[in-house]
Fold this sequence. Notes:
Largest sheet: none
Mean pLDDT: 77
Order of helices and strands: HHHHHHHHHHHHH
Distance between the termini: 120 Å
Helix content: 40-55%
Shape: elongated
Number of strands: 0
Radius of gyration: 43 Å
Low-confidence stretches: none
Amino acid sequence: xxxxxxxxxxxxxxxxxxxxxxxxxxxxxxxxxxxxxxxxxxxxxxxxxxxxxxxxxxxxxxxxxxxxxxxxxxxxxxxxxxxxxxxxxxxxxxxxxxxxxxxxxxxxxxxxxxxxxxxxxxxxxxxxxxxxxxxxxxxxxxxxxxxxxxxxxxxxxxxxxxxxxxxxxxxxxxxxxxxxxxxxxxxxxxxxxxxxxxxxxxxxxxxxxxxxxxxxxxxxxxxxxxxxxxxxxx
Length: 234
């Protein structure tokens, strides 16, 4: 986390009153305009504000002030803090804008149907809801269950695709591999595939099964047909 100066105006008042720093140096250190620092020195601004000693707060050292007083071009630098305060991590459900809160039940229904591996805590982090609401939607006891339609929370803007992928990946780590029944169709065994014969072999077998006598009998009947008709005419 970037360091920031505590109480810039109060610090500027103390530096104006207790050091020989230029207005530009104080303005650069306190993130103020040089004219504002000049107004503080003239008593026209920041009246009633008590000066804050940056040395006592550990944000500026005496050696740093001395170097800046000796060199007008030197820029003051904040001292390194002796204790590093860790950044506070956000806990609890994600904040959802009021305009998008009506879409949360639809997003929860989408997550429950498409990612059943997600835990309630993970869904809460993604869309900013409570476990009781998730249970009601999962058990179809929500007051508006009849009108709910599953909608992707990323499309609704309730979470990012990266956050969704991370939560799904976390939930999938401890999940067992899918069984053959869950996967549906499986590969046939080697014994079953060996029994299969090519299609052209099956066609040859069908041709062999045709009776040759029946073929010749049909041909002879076709030839004898026209002669019988001629005999009837005479």
